[in-house]
Write the structure tokens for this entry.
Amino acid sequence: MALPTVTKAQVSLNGISIGASYWQPSLDYWNNRSMLTAYNQGEGAKLMGAMMPTAGLEIGVVNGLTIGGRVGYWKQSAASALTVAGINRTEQFTLSLIPVSAELKYRFSLPVRSTTDGESKAPFLTPFVGVGLSRYFIKNEFSRQVVNNTGSVDEKQAGSANGVQALVGVEKKLVKKLYASLEARYHVSSYKQAVTTETGNTSETVSLNGLEANLSLRFKLAN
Amino acid sequence: MKNPMRTLRLTACALCLTAVLYDCKPTEVASLTPFTYTFKGLDDLKLPDVKPSEPVVVTVIEATVTPSKQAAAVSDGIAAIAATGKVPETVQQAVSELNKAIPEANANALEAGFTEEVINTLTTKGTLPADLQSQVDKIADSPMMKAYLPTFSLPQVDGKAVNARSGAAPETLAVATALPNDNDKDKCKKAAKEAFDKAVAVLDATRKEQANAIEAAYKKYEANANSERSGCLSGTPAKYNGLIATAKKDLDKKLADLKASKKAMGEAMYKTLTASAYVTYSELIDVYNKMMNADTKACELASQARVTAAKAARDKDLGIVYTNYNAVLKSAEASRDKAVASCHNQGNGG
């Protein structure tokens, strides 16, 4: 006997979610070619992956398909003491990234489970896929303290970039109206970073490509 | 229930769309401020200020010719004879002295020899026929004649008579030290070399500015010296030509006075006084011509001395500039070498 399929005719409406991700953007310029390579007495410093809190909102469109938005906040720092030509200084560089995306997500309709006592149960896990258009807000914070000489700075710079994201994950209902999801998301984006040296000005491309793993809780607002 | 949720849905859609579409154009992030190497001893190198110095003043004393006071007194005495008909005591005394210097034969020869043509030639060219010249020279050498002849002093340049040599050897100029090449690609060493090159460029510019000012001052002094020389060379002949013209007038007057007094003084006295007038005039013209030549030479020597003094001032000032430059350059090299040495083994730095 074919088990009835619980369709998603009644789509998830007005869900909000909060979560935490681990995202490691490439940041190839910073990690491989910038002044960070001279940190730590020449061994170099890298901006590795970091935890990123996220918050999102979904609106149901048709069966299984939702449209929504998500925002995160990623931050990483590198610091080092430096000595050149007898001049001592300390530098600290902090990079903040705020990805904001508009997403289309599809949750697959899986057949309901049948228990041993004949009752129908929702699927154990609900897989989903999605794509998003994203905008990245970038902020540098840089401080340099030079001992007994000129050249100390404390400055900030900001910029933005566009990109796309592809995501895949699974969701599980915990209790009524509360779901937990585990998601893998791949960012594709890059931004322009101006670089001024003693010899001149250039513009470097900094890649934000990288994999993000996210664990979040979704609270379903509508039936 | 559905309407508020629908409103919320639409609002959320609008917010999402706005967030994505707001200022879609990507913006470049501005650069971090790069670390600029500063090297002590290279940042504010300056050359000491050197202003062009004034050259030593060249003192010039023109030649002087002093006519004989006794001769002038005799001329005045002669001039009075025509009016008084008597020969003054000064004239008589002078004649008795002049007779010892001018024998009667010479007096006759001179009176006959100094024709108008000979006097004009003497006046314009300063020359006499050889036989007359030898007679004049012999009479002028007589001790009794000396008191009636003009005296003179040669011109002087810087206290030396014009015939003396002058000139000074120029100072040796210092030469800037050549710099070694440094092609090391290390950022710190490269920055130290660039700071050094920049400092040297500033020193070079200052050195050239100071040298140009010193050279310009020298050119000014040289031009002034040449201008004074031109003025001197054109003024000297004019001065002596004027003096010669005055002497000729005096001679003409004296000869006229002698002619007018001939009857009162007698033939012998007349001839002696006429001969002495010619000898005195000849010697005066000779002295004027010699002094004119000496003063002309003094013009040249004074100009040379002024140019030499200007050169000496210039060379001395340039020597100071170059000495300063070499000292500061050496200090800059030491600072650069110290900075390069401290670049080594201390990490690459930003």
Remarks:
- Helices of chain A lie at 28-32.
- Chain A touches chain B through 53 residues (CB under 8 Å).
